């Protein structure tokens, strides 16, 4: 009887020690999501224009981007995102986008950003070779980017624009799109090629369901 009781007590202590060890194991964290592709997600952006001193000032323009639903194209499910690609314009466009193993792509196969590839050229712009040559790569891995909506660990898709025109003598300039961790696109920057006007759209409010 004593032997049985001692065996039972040892078994209880062994199980308790196993349970305690298991409870202290680290819980793996989910991978960061920079795309925020869910129906019902929306983002509100405010427009800025760079002044002659190089300081960005609010323009009073706002834009609401949102995902209205999804659709199947060539066997793949794409999310339908509505937004104005240039915040100072009035024309809203529809983009069909999806997550392709860590790459944000559209229905034409263009890579819009990557969550992991900070080495390769992801996009080459040859739409106006008589004016410029452009190539896009990811940069700013895990950098903190501040916008009115907050400070977010971010990654950036940056398009380098190299002029080929020999008359206007513009310098190399950049277009970029910043994506915040678990938020989606938080900031974009563009310029008018024929001048020196630079514009930004910065996130001021959002609703994101992962």
What does this structure look like?
- With 210 residues, the protein is mainly beta.
- The protein has a domain of 113 residues.
- A hairpin with a 4-residue loop joins strand 5 and strand 6.
- The longest helix is centred in the N-terminal third of the chain and has 22 residues.
- The termini are far apart.
The DSSP helix count reads 1
Strand content: over 45%
Rounded radius of gyration (Å): 24 Å
Low-confidence stretches: 1-21
Which strand order does the major sheet show? 6-5-4-3-2-1-12-11-10-9-8-7
SSE order in H/E notation? HEEEEEEEEEEEE
Mean pLDDT: 86
Q: Structural class of the secondary structure composition? A: mainly beta
Descriptive labels:
mainly beta, 210 residues, disordered N terminus, twelve-stranded antiparallel β-sheet, 12 strands
Give a summary of the structure in a few sentences.
The protein is mainly beta.
Topology summary:
Blueprint: H1 2-23, E1 42-50, E2 56-73, E3 76-83, E4 93-100, E5 103-106, E6 111-114, E7 123-125, E8 132-147, E9 150-163, E10 173-180, E11 184-191, E12 198-207
Antiparallel strand pairs: 1-2, 1-12, 2-3, 3-4, 4-5, 5-6, 7-8, 8-9, 9-10, 10-11, 11-12
């Amino acid at each position: 009887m004593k032997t049985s009781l001692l065996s039972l007590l040892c078994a209880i202590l062994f199980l308790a020690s196993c349970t305690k060890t298991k409870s202290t194991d680290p819980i793996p964290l989910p991978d960061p999501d920079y795309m925020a592709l869910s129906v019902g997600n929306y983002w509100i952006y405010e427009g800025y224009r760079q002044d002659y001193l190089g300081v960005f000032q609010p323009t009073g323009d706002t834009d609401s981007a949102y995902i209205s639903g999804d659709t199947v194209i060539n066997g793949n499910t794409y999310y339908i995102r509505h937004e104005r690609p240039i915040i100072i314009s009035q024309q809203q466009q529809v983009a069909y986008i999806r997550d392709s193993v860590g790459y944000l792509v559209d229905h034409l196969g263009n890579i819009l950003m990557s969550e992991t590839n900070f080495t390769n050229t992801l996009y080459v712009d040859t739409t106006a070779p008589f004016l410029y040559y452009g190539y896009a790569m990811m940069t700013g891995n895990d950098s903190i980017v501040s916008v009115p909506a907050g400070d977010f660990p971010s990654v950036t898709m940056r398009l380098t624009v190299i002029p080929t025109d020999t008359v206007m003598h513009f310098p190399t300039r950049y277009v970029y799109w910043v994506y915040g961790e678990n938020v989606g696109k938080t900031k974009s920057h563009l310029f008018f090629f024929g001048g020196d006007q630079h514009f930004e759209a910065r996130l001021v409010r959002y609703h994101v369901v992962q």
